[in-house]
Structure formats: C-alpha cells, structure tokens
C-alpha cells in the first residue's frame, strides 16, 4: 500500500513538472521563431549606395540630384534607426532564450530524476514537444511574415507619399512654369489663350497624371495644348516624351505619332551634342 501511494505521488510530481515545462517550451519556440525572423531582417537588408546613384545619373543626367539624394538620405536614416532597434530586440530575444533554455534543462532533469512515466516514456514525450515547438515556430513565422508584408506596404506608401511631395510636386511646378512660358511666347501681344494644366498623381497603384484643358475642349484647343506640352517637355528634358491623351491619338493617328517620336529622338540627340 505504501509503494502504491509512493507511485501515485511520483506520478503527480512528474505530471506537475511537465505541466510547468510545457508553457516554458512553448514560449521558447515562440522566441526562437521571433529571433529567426529578426535575424533574417538584419541579414537581408538592401540599401542604395552612392555608386548606384552615380550609375543612374549616367543614364539620366538631367535628373534632380539634390531631390533624389534627399529622399535616399531619409531612407538611409530610417533604415539605420530600424536596424538599431532590431539589433536591440535580437539581444533581448537571445538573453530570454538563454534563460528559458536553462529553466527547461532543470525541469527535464527533475522529471528524469523522478523516473519514467508508466504511460509516456521520455523519448515519445520529447518528440511530441519537438513537433509542438515546430508548429509554434511556423505559426510565429507566418505571423511575422504577415506583419512584415504590412510594414513593407506601409513603407511603400510612405516613400510614395514622400516622393510625390518632394519630387513630383517640384517637377510639376517647374513644368507648369515652362508651359506658361511657351504659351506666352505663342501669344506675345496680349491675346493669350488659356494654358493647359499638367500635374502628377501619386496613388496606391503608382504614379499617374492629369492633363486639364481648363474647360476648353474643342479640337483646336486640344491640339494647341498638346503642342504646348510637347514644346515644354522638349525644353525640360532631352528624353523623348509623348502625352498619352486621347486628343493626340484621335487627331493625329498612329503613323504621325511614330514620326513625331522620331523627331523627339533627333531633338534629344541635338540637345546632348
């Protein structure tokens, strides 16, 4: 009778010890998953270097160096701050994992000291713990991946917004001034026609544009507005540009558009020479 009661007591102690071990193992698996994702983020970062921008300028010499480098400066600063935070979090996770690993080692040693269970041997139990830990790590990785995708989308929208305000807004203002200048030259004696308006639109689908005829949508006005746009664009950049407006497609047609592009290319080479 005393031996039977001793076995019951030992079994209760083993069950109690395992009940304490399970949440520790679960927490360890979660921390290991988080540490793995933080390490992946630290190892997989990409940054645009000065040499990358220098190569970009060789193909686009008219690009606004100051605005591009300002945007990239903020990008680098955000990356530096994020990396510092990730390294600090990595250190915290490693310390927590080390502490939990020692606790788990002590609990397992205590369970082994109490002897094997009559219903579940240590090998089977450890295998179940490993499978359970793997499932938990995968769940954490899936959650981290979803959060990472959300952060990537937020970062994309933030950079698009910054680009729209710092770069496309400035380009729109500069180009508007050039179109007004061209319009003034076309009508130097005061009989000035309404100048079209052009501006970029930064949306979740990308960068688009608006070309406003300012209420004058007659065939002559549309043709004049397209001509003002083309001349202003040729003054603004050596690259060939053609507005994707229904007016020029309907009034000019595909064959003349090809010829117009050829003229643009010749003009670009003349400006570069």
TrEMBL record:
InterPro entries for this protein: DUF2326
Protein name: DUF2326 domain-containing protein
Domain DUF2326: residue ranges: 193-268
Pfam family membership, one: DUF2326
Species of origin: Corynebacterium pelargi
Upper lineage: Bacteria, Bacillati, Actinomycetota, Actinomycetes, Mycobacteriales
Source domain of life: Bacteria
